[in-house]
Amino acid sequence: MSDTTLSGSRRLIVPALGRLYAGLHDAAETLLRVVAGLAMVTHGAGKIVNPFGATGMVESLGFYPGVLWSPLLAATEFFGGILIALGLLTRPASVAAAIVLLVTVYFHWIVRAEGYGGAEKSILWAAIFIFFAIRGANRHSVDAKLGREF
Description:
It contains seven helices and no strands. By secondary structure, the chain is mainly α.
């Protein structure tokens, strides 16, 4: 692979690194997807054990009835994270995760008036899930093994 193939019309400063970058491209993307998915699972684990535990919090954000939205939040974080980590239904799971994270951006930035500093992590996580919502999973995914993606 030439250094221009890897980076479009740009040339690498150290052309010898082109093969390394090309070889690690899918592995790095897979690592990001798995870590992001597992982080979402970890975040949702407490909620899935007590799916109605966030009822008051979701209602305070205007999501009524909380008895509907709280379990949906728990399922989105926990099961959506598993799907993303596996690379199964990656796009719809990532869209759902991004929506959850954009709501947390609103919560921290507006409701709690923490501004960018309070919302920064949520912005970064939302950007990661938006990336996978657009990109989908790569060849290291269940979607790829099934030969179909959403």
